[in-house]
Amino acid sequence: MQGLGKTERGEQGRDIDLTSLRSTMPASGPLQGGSASNLNMNLYATKKTAAEGMLDIALFLANITHMKTVIEQGAGYRYYVAVLTLISFSLALQIVAGILIIIIARRDVSEEVNQKRLDSMNNITTILVFLIFVTNIFISVFGMERTGLFPRMHF
């Protein structure tokens, strides 16, 4: 045992000194009942925005791939115009959301001057993401025919 604190049995039967382990963790924080001042809101908001942007890029690439598949199937495809229109609408919304995400990420949320504007931009981005979500549900519903994902059964 290293310290004089309480010990527990860890993995592989070794004793763990809980006192020395606690010294490596933050003493308090908003999740442990401490103050929220230890939490850097600007860093949190930037990371959240970056993650949202990466998801937007992934969906953007998936929609481009889907559009390519629909175009390759040709105008004989039953919902050709509808799916192409929905994909184009989704891509346009994703571009606008991406621009808003970049603008939000570049601003400092801890500055009081920016907070109201960033809150509005964040709300607009949330609405856009919801519209993208709904649009992509329709794209998925209309895009299931002849994609090769669901082979037709012949009885």
Automatic annotation (TrEMBL):
Q: Which domain of life is it from?
A: Eukaryota
Its principal location? membrane
Subcellular location, in the record's words? Answer: Membrane
Topology with regard to the membrane? Multi-pass membrane protein
Q: In Gene Ontology terms, what is a biological process of this protein? A: cell adhesion
Among its keywords, does the record have Membrane?
yes
Keyword entries, A-Z: Cell adhesion, Membrane, Transmembrane, Transmembrane helix
InterPro entries per the record? Ninjurin
One Pfam family matching this protein: Ninjurin
Entry annotated with the keyword Magnesium: no
Q: Which residues cross the membrane?
A: 77-104, 124-144
Any one cellular component term from GO for this entry? Answer: membrane
What family does the Swiss-Prot or TrEMBL record give for this protein?
Answer: Belongs to the ninjurin family.
Protein name in the entry: Ninjurin 2
The species this protein was found in: Seriola lalandi dorsalis
